[in-house]
Amino acid sequence: MKAIWNNKVIAESDDIVTLEGNSYFPAESVNNDLISKSDSKSVCPWKGIASYYDIHVDGKINKAAAWYYPEPKIAAKEIRGRVAFWKGVEILED
């Protein structure tokens, strides 16, 4: 699968975990040249505290368009070390 924004592949992997309709990519599959840490955070009662990345492509910024759980709760342990996308990021199967 691929995560694409502004015609650029942000992440690509065959090792996807799907949770609540979101595709979580392994962190190592994300192009680190296209993301930067965001100050945004949110809380899920059963997954824990989410942190976010901004996506940067060709001078455009998609703020907090990727998220991850640095320390997910036990119920969501399968998404540790994984990143998911939203805000217009397309998730496509190869």
Tell me about this structure.
The chain has strands at 2-5, 8-12, 17-19, 22-26, 35-44, 48-57, 60-68, 82-85, 90-92. The chain is mainly beta and 94 residues long. It has a single domain (2-92), classed as Beta Complex (Metal Binding Protein, Guanine Nucleotide Exchange Factor, Chain A), CATH 2.170.150. β3 (17-19) and β4 form a beta hairpin. The termini are close together.
Record the SSE blueprint:
Blueprint: E1 2-5, E2 8-12, E3 17-19, E4 22-26, E5 35-44, E6 48-57, E7 60-68, E8 82-85, E9 90-92
What is the number of beta strands? 9
- The CATH level-2 architecture is identified as Beta Complex
Radius of gyration: 12 Å
Output the CATH homologous superfamily: Domain of unknown function (DUF427)
The separation of the N and C termini measures: 6 Å
The average pLDDT value, as a whole number, equals 97
- Number of helix segments? 0
**Global outline:** globular
- CATH topology descriptor: Metal Binding Protein, Guanine Nucleotide Exchange Factor, Chain A
Short description:
With 94 residues, this protein is mostly beta strands. The protein is 0% helix and 56% strand.
Keywords:
mainly beta; six-stranded antiparallel beta sheet; 94 residues; single chain; 0% helix; Metal Binding Protein, Guanine Nucleotide Exchange Factor, Chain A; globular; three-stranded antiparallel beta sheet
